[in-house]
Design a protein that fits this description.
- The structure holds two protein chains of two kinds.
- Chain A is globular and about 65 Å long.
- Chain A has helices at 2-18, 32-40, 44-50, 86-92, 111-123, 163-180, 206-216, 219-226, 235-255, 260-279, 286-296, 298-316, 320-352, 360-384, and strands at residues 21-26, 52-53, 58-63, 70-75, 97-104, 129-134, 185-189, 191-192, 203-204.
- Chain A is 56% helix and 11% strand.
- By secondary structure, chain A is of the alpha/beta class.
- Chain A has a seven-stranded mixed β-sheet, with helices on both faces.
- Helices cover 61% and strands 7% of the residues of chain B.
- In chain B, strands 2-3-1-4-5-6 form a six-stranded mixed β-sheet, sandwiched between helices.
- The two termini of chain B are 55 Å apart.
- Residues 65-80, 165-176, 178-195, 220-224, 257-265, 488-494 and 499-515 of chain B have low confidence and may be disordered.
- Classes of the chains: A alpha/beta, B alpha/beta.
- The A-B interface holds A 27-30, 78-81, 104, 106-109, 111-112, 135, 137-139, 141-143, 164-165, 167-168, 171, 193-194, 196-199 and B 288-290, 309-312, 337-341, 364-367, 369-370, 373, 401-402, 404-409, 452-453.
């Protein structure tokens, strides 16, 4: 376990360097934390404790903590005298990111926010922007609940919806279009309430928000969003996905540096396996580990081990090795780590239910194929975003 | 810039006045010379003194209140300062109290000592109220000086009547008669007349000396040392109180009273007269866009006066008249929502013209940084103007129906017990708003203003507003006063001169009526 303490900080750092940023801008209590909660399924307490100071005016919440795949930048200075968004804009520069403006649907006083959006857009007219219009129940007539199915996908909005709500939503949207232009801009009315508030469902509009974010976001952000626990898909797998992606990114990042990969990648993978077991409420002991390796198949392991050696040698070739070799090695490390993670999740799940885990090797091979495609997509996207530090 | 443009006009007017007055004014030294050459100076002096004394006596009879106001007697002896004073005037009163508590009976033992004590009191006040002037003692006008004589005399007379042995038997009129008779003897025997004339050139010293001479004799006849000390204190307080009014400019209002022969000096009556006057109480509605200012206005006016919408509607400062039992004439002033520091100028200007402020915040919006900044700006505006009293403020917490649990609205809510979850939410929101914006718990009123259902708790808000009316009236008095001061110009000075003429004319007419 002492080993894990040694490597956890560098792994988190590596992952953090590559993690895309969702820049949340909005007034106090406009619903930013609720959005993070809905996307990551973390509790309010976890989110509160997870925030760390970042720029002078903003704080950041990394998810998951061990190997972040996404970072939520929460601007807090909004509306304070002399707030200058330059530092927060700079934080987003040079990495994949998405602006998520959060406004209460019935709050028409948004000058400070519009000002910030205007400044960011003026510098980077193509930065994607999603506007979440929250707490829409404030515009409902007394005693009415949410309209189902979610009606805000079609525009103009239906006449059946409450008139003040529609009026306010449209007014806000016009104001945003005025400062931000119309391209790369989408609006999602949502209402994330608490159980017992009397509104069902409590995460009204979450799917619309996730799909709007995925549609607007650069590939790296979209990939991260797809792996978040709040993303649509099988509930069982969702929890582990974010962790696997985080460790895989960290592994890929470790391998971009010559030789260092020999040591780092297996350590990252070991840390990941420990984390996954924790998520499933289990522990690796010698027997389960041996069983997993057995299920993964000896041939797989041998192949992985030999390619490790070859890749490290390739990287040592001057000129060629450091660019092509490093890139290929990074992709391979990312893909194998990702596939091992998926296979381990499959193994752990089956084991917890007391079922046999015969298909582990098949899962590994299948995932590995996808993982290489994923790695390639990330690579092109990072190139577009101007590269990571 | 303004002064430079007006200067040629000033000089021209001045030259015109000099040209017109010079022939008349030149008669004064020439007449004096003639009197001296003919040897009539002594007769002229005697005649002048008789006329002045007669006029003074006449004015005293006509203008002084026949019955003393009990509250003024209390004030003369007690430490209570006047509620209508500005913070600066109150500070001056504290200075006077310090001086009064340290005063020694010896200070009234001789004429010069009493004069010095009076001057010291007046100077203390003057320095506090006009710290920027080199010669603060001269910062008043002649009508004000006459009024201060009047006021200090009245206050002291009440004190003597109520406090001194046999004070109720010896009327002030008798004292004054005795004093004047003695003064007349002095006039003839010692040639004291010239001194009196010179003395009249400085009304303040004349006032203090008159007072001293009127009372020291009785005190020392009674031989009661502690009584003398009490009188010395009362003397300092009365002179101080009158001086505060003098230098604070409050007496310019009294001048209007003099014109219309209102016989009481009490400022409570001035305030009451104000309330009946033309200037209404101005109640300002301020807050963020969408906080609910316009719907609160409609709820208070009990009619749809202002347009209410979920999108910003009030584009500029708009005034509405407000009528309600127990409320003097009032204007309700709706302002556009706060949109950032650039909108503060308009707001501060509106607040400077307001006598009460209703600050509206939505219970469901936690972002109150802009409210905090605006309130700080208003508070610092008033603390930078010690001659103005900050209007009383109430924090109105709107949209309480939007608090958790949503979809529940079963008023009334008991906020003290807070057994219901909604009551707890409302109380929580009140506490948050009060700590965010620096209001005390009793200065917050939670309301529901929307017209869709019956407005809630508006009656409680009305009760708080009416409680604050006296404070608002005091703020209005000082606001009106500073408005009058700032409007001073040549036109105003001419009108003051005309008013002074009317006083003299009125006095003569009354005299012919009564005699």
């Amino acid at each position: 376990m002492s080993q894990s303490a040694d490597v956890s900080a560098p792994i988190a750092d590596k992952a953090r360097q590559f993690a895309p940023v969702v820049w949340l801008v909005g007034k106090v209590q406009s619903g930013k934390t609720s959005i993070i909660r809905a996307l990551t399924q973390a509790t309010d307490a976890e989110i509160g404790a997870g925030f760390r100071a970042c720029t002078r005016t903003a704080r950041v919440f990394d998810f998951p903590d061990e190997a972040p795949i996404i970072r939520f930048l929460d601007t807090r200075g909004l509306g304070e005298a002399g707030y200058d968004p330059a530092a927060d804009i700079a934080f987003c520069e040079g990495r994949a990111h998405l602006m998520l403006a959060v406004v209460k649907a019935l709050d028409s006083e948004q000058h400070a926010l519009l000002d910030v959006i205007g400044q960011a857009r003026q510098r980077y007219p193509d930065w994607p922007l999603v506007v979440a219009q929250t707490s829409i129940h404030e515009g409902y007539a007394a005693g009415t609940g949410h309209t189902l199915p979610y009606p805000f996908t079609a525009f103009p909005y239906s006449d059946a919806l409450p008139e003040p709500l529609i009026k306010s939503l449209t007014h806000q949207q016009m104001q945003f279009k005025k400062v931000a232009g119309k391209s790369g801009l989408s609006f999602v009315p949502i209402d994330f309430t608490q159980p017992g508030d009397g509104f069902e469902p409590i995460d009204y509009g979450r799917e619309a928000l996730v799909s709007a974010l995925m549609a607007a976001a650069p590939v790296a952000v979209a990939l991260a969003l797809a792996e978040l626990p709040g993303a649509p898909g099988k509930a069982d797998a969702r929890k582990a996905n974010a962790h696997i992606l985080g460790f895989a990114v960290a592994a890929g990042a470790s391998d971009a540096v010559p030789v260092a990969g020999v040591v780092a990648v297996p350590m990252v993978q070991a840390a990941m396996l420990r984390q996954l077991a924790k998520l499933h409420g289990m522990q690796w002991d010698r027997r389960t580990y041996a069983e997993f390796l057995g299920a993964l198949g000896a041939s797989t392991l041998v192949r992985t081990a030999s390619t490790f050696g070859i890749r490290q040698l390739v990287k040592l070739i001057p000129g060629y090795g450091q660019t092509v070799g490093a890139a290929a090695a990074a992709a391979a490390s990312f893909a194998t780590t990702y596939a091992v993670g998926k296979a381990a999740t499959y193994f752990l799940e089956r084991r917890r239910r007391g079922e046999s885990a015969d298909e582990v090797a098949a899962v590994y091979r299948e995932t590995l194929q996808n993982a290489f495609r994923l790695a390639k997509k990330r690579e092109t996207d990072m190139g577009n975003a101007g590269g990571a530090p | 810039m303004k002064e430079q443009r007006r200067l040629p006009g000033y000089s021209r007017t001045l030259l015109l006045i000099v040209a017109l007055l010079l022939p008349t004014v030149s008669l004064i030294p020439l007449g004096g010379l003639w009197l001296w050459q003919q040897g009539y100076v002594v007769y002229w002096g005697i005649a002048t003194c008789i006329v002045v004394t007669a006029l003074y006596h006449l004015e005293k009879r006509l203008i002084a209140g026949p019955t003393p106001t009990p509250s003024r007697t209390e004030k003369a002896t007690d430490a209570a300062s006047d509620a209508a004073w500005s913070p600066l005037q109150s500070a001056a009163w504290d200075d006077v109290m310090t001086l009064a508590s340290a005063v020694d009976a010896e200070r009234l033992s001789s004429r010069d000592a009493a004069l010095n004590l009076g001057l010291e009191t007046i100077e203390t006040v003057a320095r506090r109220l006009h710290p920027e002037r080199k010669d603060p003692l001269l910062q008043f006008t002649v009508p004000e000086a006459l009024a201060v004589v009047e006021r200090a005399s009245n206050g002291l007379r009440d004190f003597v009547t109520k406090t001194f042995p046999l004070g109720d038997r010896i009327t002030v009129a008798q004292l004054m008669w005795v004093y004047r008779w003695r003064g007349a003897l002095n006039l003839v025997e010692k040639g004291h007349d010239l001194w009196r004339i010179v003395r009249l050139l400085n009304p303040v010293s004349a006032a203090t000396q008159e007072l001293r001479e009127r009372f020291t004799r009785q005190i020392y006849d009674a031989g009661r040392e502690h009584m003398a000390r009490r009188l010395a204190r009362a003397y300092v307080k009365e002179v101080g109180r009158a001086a505060i009014d003098l230098y604070g400019g409050s007496l310019r209002i009294t001048q209007a009273e003099l014109n219309s022969h209102i016989t009481t000096n009490s400022r409570a009556d001035i305030a009451a007269a104000e309330a009946r006057g033309a200037e209404p109480i101005r109640i300002l509605l301020a807050g963020q866009t969408g906080a609910g200012k316009s719907s609160l206005l409609n709820a208070l006016a009990n009619a749809v006066e202002a347009e209410v919408s979920v999108v910003p509607t009030t584009a500029r400062v708009t005034a509405y008249t407000l009528t309600r039992e127990g409320l003097p004439a009032a204007l309700l002033i709706d302002t556009p929502g706060l949109t950032g520091a650039n909108s503060f100028d308009v707001l501060i200007e509106s607040a400077a013209q307001a006598d009460m402020v209703l600050w509206v915040v939505s219970a469901t919006r936690a972002a109150r940084e802009i409210d905090r900044q605006a309130l700080t700006a208003i508070r610092s505006h008033f603390s930078a103007e010690p001659n103005r009293r900050r209007p009383p403020m109430l924090l109105v917490l709107s949209h309480i129906d939007g608090l958790r649990p949503f979809n529940e609205w079963e008023p009334p809510y008991d906020l003290s017990g807070a057994a219901q979850p909604k009551s707890q939410s409302i109380r929580g929101a009140m506490e948050a708003a009060s700590s965010d914006l620096g209001f005390a718990a009793h200065e917050i009123v939670p309301v529901r203003t929307d017209v869709a259902v019956a407005p809630y708790n508006i009656d409680a808000l009305w009760a708080r507003i009416i409680e604050l009316v006296p404070e608002a009236q005091r703020a209005r008095l000082l606001r009106t006063l500073s408005d009058i001061k700032s409007a001073s110009s040549w036109a105003a000075i001419w009108s003051q001169a005309a008013n002074a003429g009317r006083v003299i004319k009125g006095t003569f007419l009354s005299r012919s009526d009564t005699s």
